[in-house]
Amino acid sequence: MSLDPVQLATFQAVVEHGSFEAAARALHVTPSAVSQRVKALEQVVGQVLVRRAKPCVPTDAGRPLIRLTGQVALLEREALEQARGSFTRVAVVVNADSLATWFLPALVRLPEVTFELHTDDEGHTADLLRDGTVMAAVTAEQAAVQGCRVEPLGVLRYVAAATPELHAAHFAGRAAGAAFGAAPMLRFNRKDLLQHRFARAVTRRDVDPPTHFVPASAGFIDAVRLGLGWGLVPDWIAAPDVAAGRLVDLAPGRHLDVPLYWQYWRLESAVLARLTAAVRAAAAGVLR
């Protein structure tokens, strides 16, 4: 049994654009034609492939077909663009701290590739691999996503930092539990639980302090330096500020290590192989 490439491309368009109507506009066909193609594909597979919601999302049965369609499209683009001497596009998801520090230099090594970058918490980046949105991910997940290879990159080490003024107001002379429970905390977004994990490890209890959300790595570090709250900062970024007295290490000798992995589609793709080598080299220069 073979799968119809037109039906697969139509199914992918429904998921990518979020509805049958939007997919029809993108493909320059009628919504009825889109519906018929998706239903025909579902009959071949014997499973419902897309949840008819707003937006449309693939079912568990549909996700492998989304990945397959993306993989075929990558190999086709790679072959065609090599023949034409033009650019190959690669979609990658990376956690914000890696994107803001060590990851971008890897991309410079592939000048013939255009990149579509996505960001998410390192504990969630692999989700975009599963649904076929991206071809590779910097992730905290060690277990390989189905159809992917996984390589360890190293450890991103964080230390808890705050300004001397915030330290004096909330931490000096106080028990750790009281201090971390009351001092204003910074978080990247609501998925970001690193600060809570660190505070729990130090205090052996859950804390719920006043919290600011700063959803950008550079802005997050600036917020720590300005005294808006305390937060976890990559150790090599915090070290000069701590040495100069601009920041205080709130728990000397304590840190939080986040192992990072590179997961990418299991394809014989020259572009993915070169990107993997570049990411590996860039990570080796920064991660522990």
Characterize the structure shown.
This protein is an alpha/beta fold. The chain has 3 domains: 5-61, Winged helix-like DNA-binding domain superfamily/Winged helix DNA-binding domain (Arc Repressor Mutant, subunit A, Orthogonal Bundle), CATH 1.10.10.10; 66-153 and 259-284, D-Maltodextrin-Binding Protein, domain 2; 156-257, Periplasmic binding protein-like II (D-Maltodextrin-Binding Protein, domain 2, 3-Layer(aba) Sandwich), CATH 3.40.190.10. Helix content is 47%, strand content 20%. It contains 12 helices and 11 strands. It has helices at 5-17, 20-27, 31-45, 63-84, 96-108, 126-130, 164-170, 176-182, 194-203, 217-226, 235-244, 270-284, and strands spanning 50-51, 57-58, 88-94, 113-119, 136-139, 148-162, 185-187, 211-213, 231-234, 248-249, 256-265. Strands 3, 4, 5, 6, 9, 10 and 11 form a 7-stranded mixed sheet that branches. Helix 2 (20-27) crosses helix 3 and helix 5 (96-108) crosses helix 12 (270-284). It is elongated, with a radius of gyration of 23 Å. The N and C termini lie far apart (48 Å). The model has no long low-confidence stretch (mean pLDDT 89).
